[in-house]
Design a protein that fits this description.
The chain is α/β, with parallel strands linked by helices and 450 residues long. It folds into three domains: 99 residues, Rossmann fold; 192 residues, UDP-N-acetylmuramoyl-L-alanine:D-glutamate ligase (3-Layer(aba) Sandwich); 137 residues, Protein-Tyrosine Phosphatase, Chain A (Alpha-Beta Complex), CATH 3.90.190. The chain contains 15 helices and 21 strands. The strands form three sheets. A ten-stranded mixed sheet has the order 8-7-9-6-10-11-12-13-14-15, with helices on both faces. A six-stranded mixed sheet has the order 16-17-21-18-19-20, sandwiched between helices. Helix 5 packs across helix 8, helix 5 packs across helix 9 and helix 10 runs parallel beside helix 12. The longest helix is centred in the first third of the chain and has 15 residues. The model has no long low-confidence stretch (mean pLDDT 92). Belongs to the MurCDEF family. Its EC number is 6.3.2.8. Keywords: ATP-binding, Cell cycle, Cell division, Cell shape, Cell wall biogenesis/degradation, Cytoplasm, Ligase, Nucleotide-binding, Peptidoglycan synthesis.
Amino acid sequence: MELKNIQRVYLVGIGGIGMSGLARYFHHLGCVVCGYDKTSTPLTDALHNEGIRVVFEDRLDWIPMSFQKPCDGTLVIYTPAIPKDSHILNYFKNHGFDLQKRSQVLGIISRGMFTVAVAGTHGKTTTSSMIAHILKDSGKDCSAFLGGISSNYNTNVLYGKNDIVVVEADEYDRSFLTLSPDTAIITSMDADHLDIYGDHSHLEESFRLFASQIKPGGVLISKKGLPLEGFTYSIKEGAGAMGRNIRIEDGSFHFDFDNGSTSIPDIRMGIAGLHNVENAVAAIEATLRLEVSADAIREALGSFKGVKRRFEYIVKNEKHIYIDDYAHHPEELRAAISSVRKLYPGKKLTVMFQPHLFTRTRDFVDGFAEVLDMADELLMLEIYPARELPIPGVDSNMVLGLMKLENKRLVGKQESLGIIKAEQPELLLTVGAGDIDTLVNPLKEILEHV
């Protein structure tokens, strides 16, 4: 497939963060772009406002005339998250259309470009967004496909004028194996997506395959301690690139970078979190190798505003601190809660958590119980099922029953708003990857208008 020949693009599952980035990319190229998703969201609203048609009913009569017969220049992209019984998806499958997974299209786009691919079970969205921002802010430039909405650019896709592309490499469904990067970063390889991989060893094997696809002369930059061969980074001693002397000054994280040949003292982070300092060390190493200067990197990290729903400050005033985060794995929760504790050691922490997927809750129930015990108060929502059907005996009470924390309760979404309004917590953290984000603006209203 040649990109230059594509004129019409239909995306089945257009509202996903990766799919919407491709929709914007092809729209930017001048293609006719439209698609289907099951629910309207702020992201699909944004696509509509940019001139991309989106429908929300899985009906064949909603497929535009120009997509009812296969022809040259027409591309149909789908996400594995779409149910296999989708009428629209099966229409395209059964009528001879050229169907490609999102990951395959990303592989086609990045082919022939200098590709920086960031993979990992945690940290890949923030790290890839940091790299893209450093390249943009320094004037080096790049294109980028991000797994979240960059707060600096208010989008998940960036367009550059050179041949550098930064991509978030997703391990779900082994998607990242369509990529052949010049620079690959692997941030973590914790057990996850066991519904796909079966066990941790198969997940690790997939990451090793990804690393083996680096182009000749390319480089692997991986977090120290991972079972991989390559250049390492860490916020602990003994790595090739290190973040040292980490401290909090005036509410901001500061650290020094050193990789043996380049030292960058007193870097002030524009975002919070010990885990984000580590992400920054990886981003610095990658951009130094692209010949960005130390001073430009320091300046860019100071102006980096992060990614929506990645340790994002929603309210920050004298009475309330409210932070929202996408964390949905025990280790991500540990990073978020630990960072909040480090920043605000004297405040009572109220955590509102929505588990994501029945399989993940089942597979990591002990880990969830342990890490949620780090809160002072827990408001637990029911599991967000996403693509899954219920599993007998697997629910949020399964986690609550293993916890030692006394101040915990299972609540509905509307009920949770009433509790926050009544209790007015001084420090609130909402976490989860489901639809807990629909509570962010109502919670902001409650805590801002006291």
